[in-house]
From TrEMBL:
Pfam families: Ribonuclease_T2. CDD domains: RNase_T2_euk (cd01061). PANTHER family: RIBONUCLEASE T2. SUPFAM superfamilies: Ribonuclease Rh-like. This is Uncharacterized protein. It comes from the Eukaryota. Belongs to the RNase T2 family. The chain crosses the membrane at residues 7-24.
Length: 205
């Protein structure tokens, strides 16, 4: 499994299915398109545990997490990152998503040891979700997280890749083959971010 998990951190693709392309605004919170992001959690742990950017956090995962998980839904600009933290009048409220939490624990998990399970959800909502409030389909916290779960179900990367005989294993796969498999299914151009472990060893992931 080492080659697969260490080489692929996450796949991002512009969610044409949501239909929010080229939405121009005239505020500091303007954005142009939505990015939906998934990650291979074992590789995410390699990145967090091997880099100083983790701020000494330790990443782990439970045995019931064996597939791609959600990172977030990000309003984004053509000319750079952001916007971020758009509306502090809508703070994260766990009570808004209690009926989703059992699914989110597996599909949108917090992998950082010693932090509350809601800390990752709070971060994604505060940083990204509040920037999509002007969209009817994402205009509240519950809709934002429900949309992430719906997209995760629709775009099951593990099965998409398995259909092309790309599975977690010691086999080396071409990045181009992985890209083609996902782009063919999603009908979108994707951005793949790869991570390589600095030291060859099995992590706690």
């Amino acid at each position: 499994m080492k080659t697969y998990t260490q080489n692929i951190l996450q796949v991002l693709f512009i969610c044409g299915v949501i239909g929010f392309f080229a939405l121009w605004q005239r505020s500091s919170n303007a954005w142009d398109f939505i990015v939906y992001t998934q990650q291979w959690p074992e590789a995410a742990c390699v990145d967090i545990n091997d880099t100083k950017s983790s701020h000494h956090h330790i990443c782990t995962m439970t045995r019931n997490i064996q597939t791609w998980t959600i990172h977030g839904i990000w309003p984004s600009r053509f000319d750079g990152d952001g916007p971020f933290y758009c509306d502090n009048s809508y703070p994260f409220q766990e009570s808004e998503i209690t009926n989703l939490e059992n699914i989110m624990d597996n599909k949108w998990p917090n992998l950082i040891i010693g932090t509350a399970k809601t800390s990752f959800w709070k971060h994604e909502w505060t940083k990204h979700g509040t920037c999509a409030l002007n969209l009817l389909d994402l205009d509240c916290e519950h809709k934002y997280f429900k949309m992430g779960l719906d997209l995760n179900k629709r775009f099951d990367y593990k099965h998409i890749l398995e259909d092309r005989n790309i599975t977690p294993s010691e086999t080396r796969y071409k990045l181009a083959d992985m890209r083609e498999a996902i782009e063919s299914f999603t009908k979108s151009k994707i951005n793949m971010q790869c991570i390589f472990a600095k030291v060859s060893y099995r992590t706690a992931c």
